[in-house]
Design goal:
Elements (H helix, E strand, L loop, with lengths): L2 H4 L2 H50 L6 H16 L4 E7 L2 E5 L11 E7 L2 E9 L9 E7 L1 H36 L1 H11 L17 H50 L5 H32 L8 E4 H11 L1 H6 L3 E5 L3 E4 L1 H17 L6 E7 L3 E7 L33 H11 L3 E7 L2 E7 L5
Parallel strand pairs: 7-9
Antiparallel strand pairs: 1-2, 1-5, 3-4, 4-5, 6-8, 9-10, 10-12, 11-12
Length: about 450
């Protein structure tokens, strides 16, 4: 495992602070060192220019060795007052004066730097008489060792400052990061304490920094979703047990009664037929539950074909015509619409809505299917309305609006509207219910077909 994967976030931030401080300090030190070097070069140049003017004044008009010999004593007296200055005079390949024997000096005019035997020099080459090609050449050597010592001390001070500032910043950064990340540790504690029995804990995002408040709100929202999902799962499990308990008990009791004594073959046949009805209902319940489980995991992938919804609705109304006639309910279809979708899935959704409408429409009532391009499709029926507080629960699994709930009813398990909602969502649409005193309307909104 790499080191970066083992370091805590606090350590990483502290090291990052230290590295940034070290880089900034080092950069500032380097710039200051360069500025100091340039400043010393400028000072040396000014000093050598002043010395050059004094030498030219002392040696004015000297262009032969004889004249130089006459001025040599005066020149040496001048040089004695400058202990850090050394002079070499060259003319016609001869050295009239050599204050630095054995040292090879640069020959090009201008300012140069030179190291010799541990001593640093600044060398300045210039003619004695400017503008004369045959003029003797002066080489002024200025000892700048004290400058170099100063720069070396300054470099050591820079490195010391970089190290101390990095260390101080690392310590302060670790303290600041630890203090600043305290809300994250609180989030970790809450996350560690989350279980199926403690999903109600929430982070106090009002007390957190702005940068973490959004994360805390998202974390609280996640806990809310988990709590809701767990409650739904618990209720779903309880509903499954509730729905299957009665038919299983019926099957067991019926079978045990039949087996208590020998009976005619016809009794066994009737018992098997009765058990078969219960088993078929249980199989349908399991299939519906598996269908909803696929919808929850996004495994319902509808086929995409252009559908004329009017034709599909007419086919379903023809199928329900006999049931409607027996219940003395009138079926009506209005409008047309087209959409892209799965014919089988949409027929199942519409069939669930029509079956639901027929069951709750009183004799002499009406079930009306309206559709408009857009696509908006409504299934509405006359009859008693649904209280507003029950509308959000209609699409819950195993929910029945009828308070007189029949356990294990082999007719309706309360999954039809949940399946319809899953089908509509799989098609990218939405479904909702509207109800008032004398009518109820289910509204489906689907993408328009192309």
């Amino acid at each position: 495992m790499q080191l970066s994967q083992r370091l805590s976030l606090t350590s990483r931030l502290a090291l990052l602070f230290a590295a940034c401080t070290a880089v900034v300090s080092l950069l500032a030190g380097v710039l200051f060192n360069r500025a100091s070097e340039a400043h010393f070069v400028e000072l040396d140049q000014q000093q050598l220019d002043g010395q050059l003017m004094a030498l030219r004044s002392t040696l004015q008009g000297v262009d032969t060795p004889q004249l130089f010999a006459q001025r040599e004593a005066q020149l040496r007296a001048e040089l004695s007052r400058q202990p850090d200055l050394t002079l070499r005079i060259t003319a016609g390949g001869q050295r009239w004066l050599d204050g630095a024997p054995g040292i090879a000096l640069p020959e090009s005019p201008g300012l140069h730097s030179l190291q010799n035997a541990g001593t640093a020099y600044r060398v300045f080459n210039a003619p004695l008489s400017a503008g004369r090609p045959d003029s003797p050449q002066l080489s002024l050597m200025l000892d700048i060792t004290h400058h170099q010592h100063f720069l070396q001390r300054m470099q050591r001070l820079i490195w010391l400052t970089v190290g101390l500032s990095a260390l101080a910043t690392a310590l302060l950064g670790a303290w600041a990061a630890r203090s600043g990340l305290r809300p994250l540790r609180r989030m970790g504690e809450v996350a560690a304490g989350v279980s199926a029995h403690s999903l109600t804990q929430r982070l106090p995002h009002e007390q957190m920094p702005a940068e973490l408040a959004e994360l805390a709100q998202a974390f609280n929202a996640m806990l809310g979703r988990l709590d809701d999902a767990f409650q739904r799962l618990s209720a779903f499990s309880a509903d499954i047990a509730h729905e299957l308990r009665t038919p299983l008990s019926n099957l067991l009791t019926h079978t045990q009664v039949i087996l208590t004594q020998p009976r005619p073959l016809e009794d066994y046949r009737e018992a098997l037929h009765s058990n078969l009805e219960e088993l078929q209902w249980m199989a349908q319940l399991v299939n519906d539950m598996l269908y909803l489980a696929k919808a929850d995991h996004g495994l319902l992938v509808p086929k995409r074909e252009t559908l004329a919804l009017a034709d599909e609705v007419d086919a379903l109304l023809e199928f329900f015509a006999l049931l409607a006639e027996d219940a003395q309910v009138r079926l009506v279809r209005e409008g047309t619409a087209h959409t892209m979708g799965d014919r089988g899935m949409l027929r199942r959704a519409l069939s669930n809505l029509l079956d639901n409408a027929l069951r709750f429409t009183p004799a002499g009532g009406e079930v009306r299917v309206r559709m408009t391009e857009g696509v908006r499709l409504t299934v509405e029926n006359t009859g008693d309305g649904i209280p507003p507080e029950l509308l959000p629960k209609l699409f819950d699994r195993f929910y029945r609006a009828d308070p007189a709930r029949h356990e294990g009813s082999s007719e309706h398990a309360g999954l039809g509207l949940a399946i319809t909602q899953s089908i509509v969502r799989a098609h990218g649409g939405r479904i909702f219910c509207e109800s008032e005193a004398n009518w109820t309307r289910f509204v489906i909104e689907l993408p328009k077909g192309h």
